[in-house]
Amino acid sequence: MSEKPVESVEAAENQPVHSEVNDTVVTEDQEDLVAEETYQLTVCLPRESGQIQVLASPREAIHDIKQSIIESPETCIYSCFYLTFNGQKLNDFEELGDIEGITTESQLYLVEDKYTDRDSRIHINRLRDLLAGPYKPNPGDAGVDGGLSFLTAVTGKIDEEIVPAGEKKDEEHELFSDAPVAETAFTNYDFDAKSHLSQFVPTSFQRTAPQCLKSFGLSGWNPVPQSQKLKGDLLYLVFTTLENETVHITSNVRGFFVNNSSNNKFDPTVKRAPSAEKLTESHSLITLLQHVSPLFATNFEKLQKFITDHHMLEVLPVNTTLPAYPWAVKKTPHTFDLTRPAEAFLNYGTDSVDSLRDWNDELQSHRELPRTNLQERVLRERLINKLQAEFTDAAVKGAMAVVEGTIVALNPLEPEGSHMYVYNNIFFSKGSDGRGTFEKLGGDEAAHVATGKDLEGVRILNNADVEGLCTLGSVIVDYKGVRVVAQSIVPGIFRRQDETSIVYGSVDNGEKISADEKFHELLGAAAKALHLAAHPVVDGEGNEVELYTSLETKGLLGADGRRYILDLYRLNPVDIEFQENEATETSDADNKLPVYPHKMTLLRPELMALYWEQKLREWVKEKTGKTDDTKDAEQQATTPESEEGKEQTKKEQNGNAAENSEEEVKIDVNDFKLSFNPDAFTGVKTKEGEHEESIREHENNVRDASKFLAESVIPSLVLDFSSYVVSPLDGDALTKAMHQRGINMRYLGKIVQLVEISKDNRLDHVKVIAIQEMVTRASKRILRNLLTSCAITDISACISHFLNCLFGAKFNPKPEAEVFAGSSATYADLTPSSLRQQIQSEVQKRFRYNLPDDFVDNLKTVPALREICLRVGIQLEAKDYHFEAYSEEQLAQFSAEDAAFEKAQAQAAAKANKHKKGEKKATKFDKIIRQTTVFVPDDILNLKPTVKQANTRSVFAEEAFEAGKMSISQGHRQLGLELLLESLALHEQTYGFLHPETSKCYAALAMIYYHGEDSEAALDFQRKAVIASERTCGVDHPETLHTYLNLGLFEHSAGRTKLALRYLRHALYYWHLIFGAGHPDSATADNNIGVMLQSLRDYPTSAKCFERACKTQEVILGKDHVLTGTGYHVLAKAFTLQGEFEKALNAERVAHEVFTAKLGEEDPRTKESDLWLKELTSNALFTAKQAEVEQAKLAQKASESGAKIQQTKSNAVPRGELPIDQLVQYINEESGKASAKKSKGKRRQ
């Protein structure tokens, strides 16, 4: 997870920072570094249009500088040009530092170039991108609203200035100012209300950019006739301006001009301008349109401002990873765009259909690039990352076409499950057991799991990065209930009629096994990193060979001479303990659980690495222990047992400590031998009587690793949950936490059982999320089976009926499915009770856990709905759904409305009967139609594919990142900062600006600058972290929420508290949508909000925040916990500031009791609480006396005048008699004196 928010705002402000001298030195070093490496170039524009400044590094190529000019708002009209220096044209691929004579402040000239067909299309696409605005809707995309960011919408108008660290306001003085309380995001906030799904997209989010044209597209006069090509014509365009005028424009090698053509007449000549001011020719299409249409010129300025109001990262496209698609989206109107159907032509030209890419050759060529130095490795990793993203995008489109039946199978006569497809040079197959390969392991269930394991194997070998060992580009796409595997094509694989190309492993379950020496050598390098054991196997003819990988893994020699490794689903050994206990017919006889559905129960690679490291530590400890024992024995044998002798022995032992440590260092780790046989317990043949000892050792290693998982790793994870080392917020976070520790998801039931046994309230949220995750995964499988048999027209009805049965039973216990005529819909038989039983059965079978019959009632509805939508790929309409049954008041209101409707109808009918023929008829009333189910098919806006890919890693970037974090934790701030900045540069070059890994790097740097009191740098990096996380992880992803919470913390520290509160309210909305109330981390957020509101003197609202934080801590930790006591102490202060002295006294009593019992009377916190308690008690007595005096005065006045006395209550002292500021100031002063000796300067929240 990302960096969590600091425990409280006050604690954050008191974090120790380095001295100003050290900070200044670091900053100056960085500035010198930038000054040495940065060129500040001046680019002069043509026709004396001015000049612009461009910052560039000496390693940037000229085409990078050109791209910066194209993307700049001031020069967006240029796209076809070249740069000159000293009158010489610069080569686009030349690096800036290699240009002779150029200095850091040189002057370049922009010269407009002649257009080619490609340049013309680029210029038109640039105009399309600009007119679309920052959020470019693409109806052809797989999902709706991919890569959204709400930061600009949430930020809104900023009316606060950043306050430098040395100019902080006097908070003590500000607390008692008489100025009116500022309105904030939490003014009139309802702390008990639930988050409404209709507010998923902020109301301030402006999606649509200002319109500049009604439409534009390619003219029907295309392609250009040969006679006009000789005159330089490239393309013909047609525009409809906002003035409703149709304009035909020619794209020529010299630029663009208005021609005399119309829809009925072709006249490509230049149209004469009606006046000197109105041009009809220009090198730039944008400039031409500004002269042709005054409204275009006006609105284009508004459009540019609209775009520049957004952060740069909000506008950039997500290119190197999949964009995040929200599960709840708003309906948006479909727009008319003539150029949209012509995108392929505008992007690739007339040859786009014939220019299919050879994905495999590109991928292997990139991997074979040199990697001798850092620069070469960065270039190589960047190209591989970019290609992987492009391959994934093409694979998703192809997989959707396969499922939708658009592509014809290569083997149409075979069963559907074994069909194979080729599309766009990508090979597609379905993730089912079409050929009976996994019949003994579980059939389709095992085949489905094997596809995911194969992808994991590809990722592992890619990370091992063995030179000469090739893997295929691989992507898994789940769409409409079907799993499709996409792979790059091995050269020559379809032309071979025999199996001679398989030179390693077996294709026929061990009848014939090959073991090519070169392959074995290459795999040996990988096996060392992956701890794989070389093991003998015997084929059907009795021949013995040695393999590193499992029998099913195949080594293939491609027609290009490269060695490819395929079918990597058994790269890790079997989880034998689980398989023997849960996945065999004899297992589970006692607890009557069904047999696990398949035997592809493998251990995760993370677990194997953890176990190997654990055994290595034990081995080292054993080695050092033996050395110590030997030395002790020798000393005991030679030293006399006298007091002097004992003292001498101790001295010698202490004196030889350094020697012992040196000997520890001399232990050769290479002597430690532990490897794992992936074929252990799989029934692979071996020669009888031979290798029995090594086979037994391999089996013991695998069994010990399996026991290590069940007996050590899983319980330790539960302990981490209880101590909040790990605090998941949703199912995805829980899944990542388990996978990082090597725990398979089949152990979810065991984790819940351990939590139930512990009876620890601190683990309640883990149990809720774990049960929700089991229900989500079971629901995904059931829904996937239903969707497989659905026609395209039934998908929305199927999903809505499933959701009604799961979440809408309270609203309608017997929902009826909507079925189209003529379709055989199996989903229509689903009922709430049958679905509940199916989910219970799936959870019992897959997670070994018995769900109670009322588990649906205990689910958190919206969080569970969110999880199912994200896992299946459902995109719902973002609106409020009514899950509960109507109340009696609502039913009565409906009856009244129906009666009023019927009465109005009757009156209208009676009145109509009185009218004569030909007269005006009475008004008709539309009947009120009420929804009978929670969901209707129209609520399902999209079903998008879910994608898994073998993501590549940048080893150097990750190592620099971890080293930087370690240096910071050890107190070396300057070194850590330099390492993290270097890591960020590597991340941006390899992954790009918009990537989850880059987002983490931004967040880490922001936190360091925040602690160094560099507010502007911290805010800049944190905003980038927010946007990158929103667009690649999701607007409601836990990582995104943490980045928003930290951004709010940084803004408050910088003096912009109102803006900080907007960010925190935004994060809090999604927090309650994801989990709801009661998460342990929510108390921290509430405390931070309370402190911020206190600084703005909104005491009533801040008290509500502290009160809610106390309730959360009390429920989770108990009333007698120190943190709960601290919360009540803070709450007492809040009530005091509010003037609620009686509530403050009650809260302080709770805090004092906890501190006294847990910390003792001498603890500074107890003393501070005792002082507050005494002052609040005396104040309460004084208040009571004052109330009696006031009542006595009123009684005397009333008796004198004979009026009736009305008793009044006074809970607080009049402001003029006991000012709050004097009370708080006095208590704080006394508290400071009491705790100065032991805890000077220490502030606790």
From TrEMBL:
User: Listed GO cellular component terms?
Assistant: cytoplasm
What gene is it encoded by?
A: CLU1
What does the protein in this record do?
mRNA-binding protein involved in proper cytoplasmic distribution of mitochondria.
Segments of this protein annotated with the region Disordered:
1-24, 622-664, 1195-1217
Q: How does it assemble?
A: May associate with the eukaryotic translation initiation factor 3 (eIF-3) complex.
What protein name does the entry list? Clustered mitochondria protein homolog
User: Which superkingdom is the protein from?
Assistant: Eukaryota
Renumbered to this chain, the Basic and acidic residues biased-composition regions fall at: 622-634, 643-653
One Pfam match, given by its short name, reads CLU_N
- Could you list the residue ranges forming a coiled coil in this record? none
Q: Does the keyword Secreted apply?
A: no
Q: Return the similarity comment.
A: Belongs to the CLU family.
